[in-house]
């Protein structure tokens, strides 16, 4: 994430603290597990989720002095997200993530699964130690949502009957649930009123859905170098995302590629060309834009002269700008 982005500069010092804390939090007695976990955090990433938590914390607290529990929730959120990526990469057999070899390729599948489990366990331990039962309940639900999302995705591989609504529902479980819950949990830690807690939940939900749709568009339109993973990875794995689902209603020919599960050499490339020629990309962009607008509107109950609320809005617009 470019440090020139305005919202980033609002919490840059806090993010430096978070990066240092993450390295300490994933320490394990077994060197292999520690190496696997450390490998992930060294790979970097945008840290989008903790950025949202830190901005939401500062947007809901009066003196800008966020609580230790806010910082810990930001760290927990990133650990949970990272754990989900380890398991995702195993399920999808991804060779690279953020331009680096995935954990199961660096070590092996067993170590990767154990590393993911270890990170989930670590996050649960730190979550319990927050001492805020409502936040524990909300964030714990996210881990079950991940499993629900993976099962839904795995049971509909190469299934052209999947609707856009089902895709959105699955995207909530896999991506938006964590962002929504961490936003809500942040407001609860601040002891904000119910209206503010619900507003931040909706902000996180719609931002998360937009983020997933945008990722799915970029999987089609961006090169492997930019993505940090192979282009068209979702297609190859049978994950039918928004651009393809919108294209299906316009170009029935691509069902041939899907029916034979992209087994012929140029099937994936030909399918990508068909999607780009169609209105599938634009319809997906429009859908992402609708969710970004819903996210911004959700912030209306918060103080509008607050620079951190403005930062949350800028983050939403930045997310959408990734498509340009």
TrEMBL record:
Keyword Metal-binding: yes
InterPro entries according to UniProt: Isoprenoid_synthase_dom_sf, Polyprenyl_synt, Polyprenyl_synt_CS
Domain of life: Eukaryota
GO biological process: isoprenoid biosynthetic process; quinone biosynthetic process
Keywords: Isoprene biosynthesis, Magnesium, Metal-binding, Plastid, Transferase
Reported cofactor(s): Mg(2+)
Ranges in coiled-coil conformation: none
A GO MF term: metal ion binding
Cross-referenced SUPFAM superfamilies: Terpenoid synthases (SSF48576)
Similarity remark: Belongs to the FPP/GGPP synthase family.
NCBIfam families associated with the record: prenyl_cyano
Protein name: Prenyl transferase
Organism: Erythrotrichia carnea
């Amino acid at each position: 994430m470019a440090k020139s982005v305005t919202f980033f500069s609002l919490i840059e010092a806090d993010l430096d603290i978070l990066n240092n804390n993450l390295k300490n939090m994933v320490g394990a007695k077994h060197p292999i597990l520690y190496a696997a976990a450390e490998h992930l955090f060294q790979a970097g990433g945008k840290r989008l989720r903790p950025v949202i938590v830190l901005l939401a914390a500062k947007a809901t607290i009066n003196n800008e002095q966020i609580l230790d529990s806010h910082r810990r929730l930001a760290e927990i959120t990133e650990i949970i997200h990272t754990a989900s990526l380890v398991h995702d990469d195993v399920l999808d057999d991804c060779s690279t993530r953020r331009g680096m070899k995935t954990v199961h390729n660096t070590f092996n599948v067993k170590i990767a699964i154990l590393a993911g489990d270890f990170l989930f366990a670590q996050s649960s331990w730190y979550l319990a130690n927050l001492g805020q039962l409502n936040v524990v309940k909300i964030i714990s639900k996210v881990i079950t949502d991940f499993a629900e999302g993976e099962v839904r995705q795995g049971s509909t591989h190469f299934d052209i009957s999947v609707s856009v609504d089902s895709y959105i529902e699955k995207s909530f479980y896999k991506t938006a649930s964590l962002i929504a819950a961490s936003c809500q949990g942040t407001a609860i830690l601040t002891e904000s009123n119910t209206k503010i807690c619900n507003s931040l939940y909706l902000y996180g939900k719609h931002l998360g859905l937009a983020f997933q749709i945008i990722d799915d568009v970029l999987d089609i339109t961006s090169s492997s170098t930019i993505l940090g993973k192979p282009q068209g990875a979702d297609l190859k794995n049978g994950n039918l995302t928004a651009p393809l689902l919108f294209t299906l209603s316009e170009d029935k020919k691509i069902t041939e590629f899907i029916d034979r599960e992209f087994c012929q050499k140029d099937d994936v490339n030909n399918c990508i060309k068909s999607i780009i020629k169609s209105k599938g990309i634009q319809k997906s962009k429009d859908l992402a834009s609708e969710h970004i607008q819903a996210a911004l509107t959700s912030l209306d109950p918060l103080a509008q002269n607050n620079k951190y609320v403005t930062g949350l809005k800028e983050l939403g617009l930045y997310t959408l700008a990734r498509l340009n």
